[in-house]
Design goal:
Order of helices and strands of chain A: HEEHHEEEH
Number of helices of chain A: 4
Distance between the termini of chain B: 60 Å
Radius of gyration of chain B: 17 Å
Number of helices of chain B: 5
Radius of gyration of chain A: 24 Å
Shape of chain B: elongated
Strand content of chain B: 15-25%
Oligomer: heterodimer
Number of domains of chain A: 1
Structural class of chain A: alpha/beta
Chain lengths: 154, 145
């Protein structure tokens, strides 16, 4: 009888050790996923802020978009709340709103746009060559976040 | 017993995944659209996001899509990469291969191809100018500078 109880205890210990053995792999998996997500988005866990960032690899600079969001966080906290709430994606691309075959292309000369019906914001591709890029982007992101707020709260 | 639960769970998750990836369903507006699998974009996320934007941003165009289109094929069609296509022998099916492009462009392509389906439904000749005008109209309506 005692032997059976001990065997059961051994089995329980063995199973617990098995689960604990998986822990490093689970942690490594979580770290890898977090790394991938942080490279394709902007995450601010304490403020529960997640914004997808779709950068232009050739003409743009995703990092300056993340830097702009940090700039807003540090310098304009109330606007930052708006941005986190009303923007879920920032796309680094020209916001072209016409088919060139029937109308003149429009949007190339604009710093970006907000797409109605979404929480998507466009900013034009820019390399971080100028010191004002981060501030300019921050200004535009705030402007488009306000458009988004207007749309979703009207 | 635990094996049965495991099989049921796997089946359930599998069906849920198929539903999430390959169907757009909006019961309130009676909108059911199949989205075929494609190696170009496994998740079909871009197309689904474009449909949701259309719903929120232009309900008339959304209703036209729901009424006239039953299937979206994200594989390459006659429009090539980043384009769309409508074949008259595939009623109510449109090709939208815009996985590489941004979502506003995808909305424009969906409206453009829906315009062709409507032309075919009304027995009108397929007129590109009318449909280019439709995609220009929707992108100009949605983009706020």
């Amino acid at each position: 009888m005692t032997g059976i109880i001990e065997e059961k205890k051994d089995l329980k210990n063995y199973k617990t050790k098995g689960y604990l053995g998986c822990l490093p792999f689970i942690l490594a998996f979580i770290i890898v996923i977090f790394f991938i997500i942080s490279k394709t988005s902007y995450i601010d866990l304490p403020n529960l802020c997640y914004i997808g960032v779709e950068g232009d690899l050739i003409k743009g600079d995703e990092n300056s978009i993340r830097a702009s969001l940090k700039y807003i966080k540090n310098n304009k906290p109330s606007e930052y709340k708006n941005v986190c709430k009303y923007v879920d994606s920032i796309i680094e691309s020209y916001c072209i709103s016409a088919d060139g075959r029937v109308a003149p292309l429009y949007g190339y000369d604009q710093p970006g746009c907000y797409v109605k019906g979404s929480k998507v914001v466009y900013v034009i591709p820019q390399k971080q060559q100028y010191s004002t890029v981060v501030e300019d982007r921050a200004k535009n992101i705030i402007k488009y976040a306000n458009y988004s707020k207007d749309f979703w709260t009207k | 017993m635990s094996k049965k639960i495991y099989i049921v769970l796997v089946l359930f998750l599998g069906l849920l995944l198929i539903y999430k990836l390959f169907f757009y369903v909006d019961i309130q507006n009676s909108c059911f659209i199949k989205i075929y699998p494609s190696f170009l974009e496994l998740s079909n996320a871009n197309i689904k996001r474009a449909i949701k934007i259309l719903k929120q941003g232009s309900i008339e165009d959304y209703n036209d899509l729901c009424t006239n289109v039953t299937t979206i094929n994200p594989n390459l069609g006659c429009g090539g990469f980043d384009g769309g296509c409508y074949y008259q022998n595939q009623h109510h099916t449109i090709y939208v291969s815009t996985h590489q492009r941004d979502v506003l462009w995808s909305v424009g392509v969906i409206v453009h191809e829906t315009c062709h389906v409507m032309q075919a439904e009304q027995n009108k000749p397929l007129n590109e100018t009318e449909c280019y005008t439709a995609d220009t109209r929707i992108t100009q309506k949605l983009a706020t500078y």
